[in-house]
Design brief:
eight-stranded mixed beta sheet, 36% helix, Rossmann fold, alpha/beta, 313 residues
């Protein structure tokens, strides 16, 4: 049962509240990202000229490429010497922005704290490559991992996860492997602030402020991702509407001051109703993917993720 006090503004610590105000002020002062071509925004974000500060690149990272349905798919790998498992990571960015090398510190942390080899997928981005390009690439990467994981990393323990659009693509990938290939290879799913309904949940339609992600942003991202004429209610695009039976234990993490709050609340409930183990971590005052910022709340959320992944077997 949800603790209503988690949604009380009085539960938001001063550091988190101050950061939220700073993010809103920064984004209000910046040019409208939607007035630029996607390639320009991608580069500006890499320089820290968006809502998030840039993250340093890992010296441990290696890149390999695998065959995919639309050409070669880059995979960024950060691995400990003797992995106990493999974590397939799918990055966020509204299916439109972001890259596999923009969250190295998170993957380094998972490798060190949880013993997982981390593989981040460089899937094709919209609007240049709308649905089903991104999901197709993630499916191909997951199938490669199922085939090659044991021989390459010496372990059959697999997990999957991502943030925002990456959480969405993680669920889509699990459903595709189950429904198209009869496979359920993952022992756990780490799903942070996902968007699970292309028609938009109530919280997604009622969040006008520029606190990382607004209602307008979600609508524009969905337009980039969904080609004209596609049924956005289809479970293949909106996994909140899918049959979720037979999926692995999942940790759903989300801040309470964020447009995609309902997506995690609803999906965590449907996950459990389908007979799967579902954990919901609610973080008072957390903005969208607040773990990108160096605040105490982010450390608490990351520690919860560490514990979840470390507990998989």
């Amino acid at each position: 049962m949800l603790d209503p006090t988690l949604f009380d503004p009085a539960r938001i610590d001063a550091e988190t509240a101050r950061l939220n105000d700073e993010i809103v002020a920064k984004l209000n002062a910046l040019p409208d990202a939607w007035s630029f071509p996607p390639a320009v925004v991608r580069e500006r974000r890499r320089q820290g000229l968006g809502p998030f500060p840039p993250m340093p690149k890992s010296r441990q990272a290696e890149t390999t490429e695998i065959e995919g349905p639309g050409g070669l798919i880059p995979l960024r790998i950060i691995a400990p010497a003797r992995p106990r498992g493999v974590y397939l990571h799918i990055h966020g960015g509204g299916w439109t922005w972001g890259a596999a090398d923009e969250q190295d510190p998170w993957l380094e942390r998972i490798a060190a704290a949880c013993g997982f080899a981390c593989i981040s997928v460089g899937y094709r981005l919209a609007p240049e490559h709308p649905y089903p390009a991104g999901p197709d690439d993630c499916e191909a990467a997951a199938l490669w991992l199922v085939r090659e994981g044991q021989s390459r990393f010496g372990t059959g323990l697999l997990a999957i996860g991502g943030e925002s659009a990456g959480a969405h693509l993680s669920v889509v990938t699990m459903l595709r492997l189950r429904d198209r290939h009869g496979l359920s290879p993952f022992s756990g799913a780490n799903l942070f602030a996902g968007c699970y309904d292309m028609t938009m949940t109530p919280s997604a339609t009622s969040f006008p402020e520029k606190l990382v992600l607004s209602t307008r942003d979600i609508a524009n991202f969905a337009d980039c991702f969904c080609p004209p004429g596609v049924d956005r209610r289809s479970p293949e695009l909106s996994p909140l509407r899918a049959d979720l039976a037979g999926l692995p234990p999942a940790l759903f993490s989300v801040g309470t001051r964020e447009a995609l709050l309902d997506d995690s609340l609803f999906m965590a409930a449907r996950w459990a109703a389908a007979g799967n183990r579902s954990e919901l971590a609610l973080w008072p005052g957390g903005a969208h993917v607040f773990i990108r910022f160096e605040i105490a709340l982010a450390e608490q959320a990351l520690a919860r993720i560490d514990a979840f992944l470390s507990g998989l077997a």
